[in-house]
Design goal:
It catalyses: a secondary alcohol + NAD(+) = a ketone + NADH + H(+); a primary alcohol + NAD(+) = an aldehyde + NADH + H(+). It comes from Gordonia desulfuricans. GO terms for molecular function: alcohol dehydrogenase (NAD+) activity; S-(hydroxymethyl)glutathione dehydrogenase [NAD(P)+] activity; zinc ion binding. It holds the Pfam family ADH_zinc_N. The protein has 2 domains: 206 residues, Medium-chain alcohol dehydrogenases, catalytic domain (Quinone Oxidoreductase, Chain A, domain 1, Alpha-Beta Complex), CATH 3.90.180; 141 residues, Rossmann fold, CATH 3.40.50. Helices cover 26% and strands 25% of the residues. The chain contains 11 helices and 18 strands. Strands 3, 5, 6, 9, 10, 17 and 18 form a 7-stranded mixed sheet that branches. Strands 13-12-11-14-15-16 form a 6-stranded parallel sheet, sandwiched between helices. Helix 11 links the parallel strand 17 and strand 18. The longest helix is centred in the middle third of the chain and has 13 residues. The mean pLDDT is 95.
Length: 376
């Protein structure tokens, strides 16, 4: 079918809305009418080259929610009319990673940036001129329709707003799990959240719900610091340097048991700074993405050893998508997890560049594209 999509044709150039053609669902695939797509910083990394795809043009978007319109052969877990969230990492449930409890590291994820469908290793999305299109993480939620493998979809309850559900395809479980799973925040611990955008605000809420004593929010944008206090932070600072003295004072010199780094772009030169506010025996969780082509890190190895600190990487917050996404949305429904107030503004598809500029300017916790008939 013919539809629209937001494409990148080269690095550091704006998104372009173009006509694309999407193939029909094959075995183990479903066709989804998209209703909402989250605007995550990771898609901006596509523009800068921080996340290198297999080629151009690229169809962006890896957070989204919609309605199943058609199912392919051998699909048993979904029916037409089901509401679903797209999981940016598929979860097959059968590979060694999934069986060992690490569904966020599903072996299907090895193919996320190559552009070819995991079902048959063919390109299923094309431009009007017939060019192969590389969809972000085999999804491409910046289009009002998509065909995906059933391992990339999670069924949800039908009374959940699509704009809320969309954020659970990446940002919410990534942030929340960074605190509760990868960070293993325990009651009474002191936690620092570095960067309080969408993922950071979810991490902040995860720390609060896990019972953290003090939650130190660190972000250079004043408005985001104000919002962090509303979401449960006990203190807010513009920089790690500004925060360090207060953290030391409040914790009697012990520093933060857990430091969750959710900045938009991780730089290796900052790692030792984050480790500096991490307590002895504590853990610094790197959730934010660095450039995949860079490998330089500044880290005092002697202090890492002598103070027995942990530097922990995480993807998707260590989440099990098929389990955690419905659970997080159930927490939203009973008022335990505030997702709705994280949505600062909704945009049309043709406003995507404006939305990403707002993100870069620090105006949004999370922007969401809300699809209408005009987009289809």
């Amino acid at each position: 079918m013919k539809t629209k999509g937001a494409l990148l044709r080269e690095l550091n150039k704006p998104w372009q809305i173009e006509e694309i053609e999407i193939g029909d669902p094959k075995a183990h695939e479903i066709k989804i009418r998209m209703e909402a797509a989250g605007m995550c910083h990771s898609d901006h990394h596509l523009m800068t080259g921080g996340i290198p795809m297999g080629g151009f043009p690229i169809l962006g978007g890896h957070e989204g929610a919609g309605v199943v319109e058609e199912i392919g052969e051998s699909v048993t877990d979904f029916e037409v009319g089901d509401h679903v969230v797209l999981s940016f990492i598929p979860s097959c449930g059968r590979c060694p990673s999934c069986k060992s409890g690490m569904a966020n590291l599903c072996d299907m994820g090895a193919m996320l940036l190559q552009g070819e469908a995991v079902s048959d290793n063919t390109f299923r999305i094309h431009t009007a001129a017939g060019e192969n299109v590389y969809p972000m993480t085999l999804l491409g939620t910046f289009s009002p329709y998509m065909v995906v493998h059933e391992a990339s979809a999670v069924k949800i309850e039908k009374d959940i707003p699509f704009e809320v559900a969309a954020l659970c395809g990446c940002g919410i479980p990534t942030g929340y799990g960074s605190s509760t799973r990868s960070g293993d925040v325990r009651p009474g611990e002191d936690v620092a959240i570095v960067g309080v955008g969408g993922v950071g605000t979810a991490a902040l809420q995860g720390a609060v719900i896990a019972g953290a004593r003090n939650v130190f929010a660190i972000d250079p944008v004043e408005w985001k610091r104000e919002q962090a206090l509303k979401f449960g932070a006990t203190h807010a600072f513009a920089s790690v340097g500004e925060a360090a003295m207060t953290i030391a004072e409040v914790t009697y010199g012990h520093m933060a048991h857990k430091v969750i780094v959710t900045v938009g772009e991780v730089h290796g030169s900052d790692v030792d700074t984050w480790m500096g506010i991490t307590a002895k025996g504590g853990t610094c969780v790197l959730t934010g993405m660095g450039n995949m082509l860079e490998s330089d890190v500044t880290l005092n190895l002697a202090m890492l050893t002598l103070l027995q600190k942990n530097l922990q990487g995480t993807i998707f917050g260590g989440a099990n998508p098929k389990l955690d996404i419905p659970q997080l949305l159930s927490m939203y429904k009973i008022g335990k997890l505030n997702i709705a107030d994280m949505i600062t503004r909704q945009y049309r598809l043709d406003q995507i560049n404006e939305g990403y500029q707002d993100m870069l300017d620090g105006k949004n916790i999370r922007g969401v594209i809300r699809y209408t008939d005009a987009d289809r």
